[in-house]
Amino acid sequence: MIEEPFASGNSIIHRIDPRFRVAVAILVSMEAALLKDFRAMAFALAGSLALVFLARLDLFHVLKRLFSLVRFLVFVWLLIPLTYEGQAVYLFGPLAWSREGFLLCAQISLKSLAILLFFMALVSTMGLSTLGKSLKALFVPGKLVHLLLMTYRYIFVIGQEYDRLETAIKIRGFSPTTTLHSYKTYAYLVAMLFVKASIRAERVHQAMILRGFRGRFYSLDTFTPSYRNWIFFIAMMGLFIGTLFLERGSVWPITIRF
Amino acid sequence: MAHNDTILIQISGVSYRYPGSAQPVLDDLSLTFREQDRLGLIAPNGSGKTTLFHLIMGLIKPDQGTIEVFGKKVEKPRDFIPVRRKIGLLFQDSDDQLFSPTVMEDVAFGPMNQGKTREEAIEISRKTLAFLGLENFEERITFKLSGGEKRLVALATILSMEPSILLLDEPTTGLDARTKSRLIDILNHLNLARIVISHELEFIQSVTDHIYTMENGRINLDEELHIHQHHHVHRHGKQPHKHV
Ligand SMILES: Nc1ncnc2c1ncn2[C@@H]1O[C@H](COP(=O)(O)OP(=O)(O)OP(=O)(O)O)[C@@H](O)[C@H]1O
Ligand SMILES: [Mg+2]
Q1: What pLDDT band is residue B226 in, cutting at 50, 70 and 90?
Q2: Taking the domains of chain B in order of start, what are their residue ranges?
Q3: Which of B15, B16, B23, B25 gets mutated to test ligand 1 (max ligand atoms within 8 A of its CB)?
Q4: What pLDDT, on the 0 to 100 scale, is given for residue A251?
Q5: Which residues on B lie below 8 Å from A204 (Cβ)?
Q6: Mean predicted lDDT score pLDDT of chain A
């Protein structure tokens, strides 16, 4: 099921207003995604590492998450240089790995690592409901935010229902094989899950109507302002502008090339 | 039992059949529910208890018969808006009732919909949670609560709307003996008219005055279970409690 290993914590980062963190994470990630200069990328990566360090994240979970990215990157490194045109640096029979391909892979790796680390340090350090509220505060439409929250809420219920159904078939001696019986059983299981989910959705809606729901959600949260938020914001702007400087050689004009 | 004569809910000759099923679940059912009434309902599984609650709340429409709430016939969706403000239904399954990420948001959802301000809603939610002994639950994540905790929080989401009638659909499922006696205390402190569905005789005796059964889609009024009524010794409980 979905875990939030970083959500609760007491680091400097955790104490920053979530809205600031979300806004900054979006900004610096977008910047990182558009970078072309290796020095700028290294700078952004260093910045993201510093943030992860400041957030005092559990190293085990950090590595676990990085691992899923690394698995993907391995394929990138194997395949892209093979299919990318340019000066061949390595030949193996009819196969040629290109220099330009390798450079592109290096870029992809640095950027995606930086972005993942930014999000780990800044966004996954809050619970999903807080993320929802921050998005709402940042003018993401309320309906979209509630779709996100409700999905999150009921994924657990549906997950539990799946577990129950699976237990139900297991305790009656079912073990999956490649027979038609197995496929049929799994088809039933999935079908039941959909049916149950839709019945559940209906009843939840009924319960909401009984409590006076008329299509409008109200938020209870107010965020308390603090000077820390602005210090954080200024520091992050430093990172943003520093990266931009390395990328462009100057800060003005801030038109980002595509 | 002496009671005030004001009729809160009057159900007359109501029948209901689920679409696609052959047998009606409720067949010519009538019931008069008065102010101060505390009514228990014990009946076998599948006898239509939950269905009856859903009819009263207007979640489904009767095929025949009429329902009057507070002396007014309810038919159209609009008629049910005041009904739903005054009657709190506790669902049989708490997972249907709790949908907000945190307990506080869920409990405040009803009051906010009733047009209360943020501060008022939070205030009343705090009081309700405290009344139920759930002071530290405000920031808890609803779907990470235990079954029994979910039950109490679900009750809080109803009580925060300050209803005058409670419809409780098997409130004790999943509660241990201690939580159950806490619930009995809570309910006896609430001076609210109620209909309580339960399969537990002892519980239902402690929180209601009359116990009816259902048979063949009807409420058996003649055969009110004549169980000796006793006032629960722990009416005011040993545990400290606050009043809303
Ligand atoms: N959505 C539905 N569609 C079709 N039939 C239904 C539906 N809900 C309930 N029924 C049927 O209506 C009958 C009464 O159901 P209801 O849920 O009211 O029973 P109940 O008295 O609350 O039972 P329990 O004690 O098990 O909660 C049952 O036979 C059930 O199969
Ligand atoms: Mg039922």
Answers
A1: low
A2: 7-228
A3: B25
A4: 61
A5: 96, 99
A6: 85
Q: What is the pLDDT of residues B108-155, one digit of tens each?
A: 989 988 888 889 999 999 999 999 999 999 888 887 888 889 999 999
- Name the B residues in 20-49 with CB < 8 Å from any A CB: none
* Strand, helix or coil for residue A239: helix
- pLDDT reading at B224 higher than 80: no
DSSP code at position A249 = S
Neighbours of A122 (CB within 10 A): 27
Side chain identity at residue B3, one-letter code: H
DSSP string computed for B121-144: HHHHHHHHHHHTT-GGGTTSBGGG
**Within-domain flag for A173:** yes
Answer yes or no: is A116 within a domain: yes
- What CATH number should be reported for the domain whose range is B7-228? 3.40.50.300
Question: A187-194: long-range contacts (C-beta < 8 A, 24 or more apart)?
Answer: A189/A162, A189/A165, A192/A165, A193/A158, A193/A161, A193/A162, A193/A165
Closest to B113 measured CA to CA, from B101, B121, B102:
B121
| Residue B192 pLDDT | 92
Strands (DSSP E) found in chain A: 88-92, 95-98
| DSSP bridge partners of A88 | A98
Same domain assignment for residues A204 and A188: yes
Verify whether ligand 1 is closer than 6 Å to residue B47 (CB atom): yes
Ligand 1 centroid to B52 CA: how many Å? 10
Please give the structure tokens belonging to residue A220. 């209870």
A83 in the same domain as A32: yes
Residue A177 lies in a domain: yes
CA angle B101, B181, B176 (to 5 degrees): 60
Q: Are residues A64 and A166 in the same domain?
A: no
| Beta-strand pair B165-169/B87-90 | parallel
**Tokens 């259902």 -> residue:** B214
Closest ligand to residue B199's CA: 1
Q: Are B197 and B50 in contact (CB under 8 A)?
A: yes
Q: Which runs of consecutive H residues, i.e. helices, occur in A124-179?
A: 128-137, 142-170
User: Can you give the residue range of the structural domain that contains A53?
Assistant: 18-135+233-251
Would you call B99 and A127 a contact, using CB atoms and an 8 Å cutoff?
Answer: no
Do A111 and A237 lie in a common domain? yes
What ipTM does this complex have? Answer: 0.76
The string of DSSP codes covering A198-226 is: HHHHHHHHHHHHHTT--S-------PPP-
Q: Which amino acid is at B45?
A: N
Question: Which of B95, B105, B110 lies at the smallest CB-CB distance from A211?
Answer: B110
pLDDT at B4: 56
